[in-house]
Model the fold of this input.
Amino acid sequence: MSETAANPFEQQQQGRPTGPLVQGYEVIIGFETHAQLSTASKIFSRASTAFGAEPNTQACAVDLALPGTLPVMNKGAVERAIRLGLALGSTIAPRSVFARKNYFYPDLPKGYQISQYEIPVVQGGTVSFYLGEEQKTVRLVRAHLEEDAGKSLHENFVGQSGIDLNRAGTPLLEIVTEPDMRSTAEAVAYAKELHKIVTWIGICDGNMQEGSFRCDANVSVRRPGQPLGTRREIKNLNSFRFMQQAIDYEIRWQIEQLEDGSRVEQATVLFDPDTGETRAMRTKEDAADYRYFPDPDLPPLAISSDWIERVRAAMPELPRAMAERYQQTHGLSAYDATQLTQSVALARYFDEAVAAGAAPKLASNWITGEIARRLNAQEIGIEAAPVSAKQLAQLIGRIADGTVSNNAARQVFDALWGGEGQEVDTVIEAKGLKQMNDSGALEAIVDEVLAKNQKNIDEYRAGKDKAFNALVGQVMKASAGKANPAQVNALLKSRLG
Done:
């Protein structure tokens, strides 16, 4: 079914900002994200959710809906849903209900999935993030609790498939957005921000390779001002890199179809990372195809205001609040503060560096600059950084007190990152990087350089600033890079008048 003007999304899109056009088409993207909740047991049974167990060893009678069994709600799963709602400014429904979503698939042992349909537990809310230095906001429709299905295994089977039901009954929170995103970059930035939030508040471990955080992207294109186009859903995107590749390909494919005079048919598609292409898996279902009806075995879920307040009291400081605090307390820009709150570990590293005496702005510059570059290059997190927050603070302190120049500090940082020595001062001494601050010795070097560079002196006095920089370079060279640049500048200007 096409998303025409009759679609409820259409009115909601009036007045929404447009993004960059792709070959004259506007891109419309919405997300459905399945976050596996970090409970030790499943949503309706006591079976374990531990990853990596032998196939079919963690599916109990309740997960399989064997005769005589009844599901029992996992309180921890509900609390994690409340936590997300509080983090995103959503409404927590005081009463929500569960339904049976009916469909046949080999890895769905019950023949239905217990989910929420008419009244979800979390309603509305927003996710805000930066794309470059521009702030974007994506509206949420809902987040509802449901159980996961099993998993079909096709590898290592000749002409057959295997079924592993360990995941059956694993607690999920499905987070659904409005179709507010207008580019691949915006979609990936949203997914990263949501990933940050669910891991920050501890409701999901965020492991995409293990399937703990799975994204489905609904993609359509249209000419500006036209009704929404027909969407295709890209299922189970389990890395941000594949997400970017899959959405980019799907946009190009849909535009090519329309330009060739063909129609885009509503469908569920999969992304093949080997070919970089999406391929249709099945015709996209609508809600009516699932024959939702209230689950007779589960009473309505009641959430009291007292319960919500208890969860609120146990919440950690959220990244948005922490970023605002960094701006107010440390004088950081909104962009820098946002970068420092990309994860709990990164914020903790910054806090430890500042507590150890580092100037907040300089600590921010090093963490979001040199350290971030190296972490990305090595594909590791801040937890694995070879340079501790205390060492970074010591290095920043040595720059501030004039012990080392900025250039020498980078050499010290290289040595620390490479595991050479544990103390900043030890590395400085061992490599002879201590800055020359002896005014007498420095004056002698400056006088010697001036005596040998009359041409540069004449050019400087004629108004050529580059000549002054050349003299600074000569002094730094003569001092083997150890001269204090500020002192060099002051002495040269004093001598030159």
Q: What stands out?
A: Residues 469 and 489 are 9 Å apart (CA to CA). The longest strand covers residues 134-147. The chain has three domains: 8-307, 317-430, 439-496.
